[in-house]
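From the pipeline queue, job 12 of 40. The input is one protein chain; the requested action is below.

Action: predict structure.
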Amino acid sequence: MKHQHLQFFLAMAEHGSIRGAARALGLTQPAVTKTVRLLERELGLPLVQRTINGVVLTEHGHALLRHAQRVDTEMRRTADAMAARREGDGGSVMAAVSASAALTLIPAALERFLVRLPRARVAMIESSLKTALDRLFDGSLDLAVLQLGPGEFPDHIQTIKLFDIEQRIVVRRDHPMRSARSLPELMACRWVVPQHPQWRGVFPTPSFWPTSMQPPATVVECSSLTIATALVRHADFVSVLPALSLTSLPSDADIVALAIEEPLPSLRMSIVYNADTPATDASDAFMKCLVAAAADWQPEA
């Protein structure tokens, strides 16, 4: 199976037609058709089905697509890594970070990294855990810096713990339940909680919620700190936030932490990476800078 054949297949999947793929690749339609048929013959599986609107992937085509995307990304990563060594430009790093990571580690780690590799290219996105895991699998991310709760990951996903982060139950300052001191008192409230793969049950339930209690009446899943704080401030929602996030809120946010009796589990600020994808020199250097920055910085108690 040739990389070029996979590139033709990816172009066809992206554009949804032989004509669109041929135009994008600068080739004739018969050339693209022939290549895809060769790929189908080699694999012994039908990959595409023609329709009046173009082509659609078969079940086998969809299965191939994810693997082909990963192979194509890895080929590009390899070429970029070798070019970085040849040209001495430091290479590139693509990282997903949480808001909490951005408030703590990223500034110091990035400063260290750019001292070591001043010509390196760095790109960062704010991401949820689920999105980061998908992109680590397909190779479009080098690493992620996120806070993790309890739970296991696929074998190819590895983590490096940097430090623990305490959590706080928060409400707006004049919330009707601002005097609550236990989780049962908050059961009838509307909650906005971080998206997390380890939630249990049919209905989304915060991972810290006692198994002996009914889940909250209303739970909104949210991967954005900005959205969560907006719902707390303006819609009477209760939320759980990393303690360090509270110090970054504007003075007029009017969000307060409740003195809840039940202990809340800590989160782990961690580097997350795909062990099946070889680290580039740049991504390896960035991970080392994150570890060094974590050793110099500790969250407030």
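Job complete. Residues 167-265 form a domain with the D-Maltodextrin-Binding Protein; domain 2 fold (CATH 3.40.190.10).
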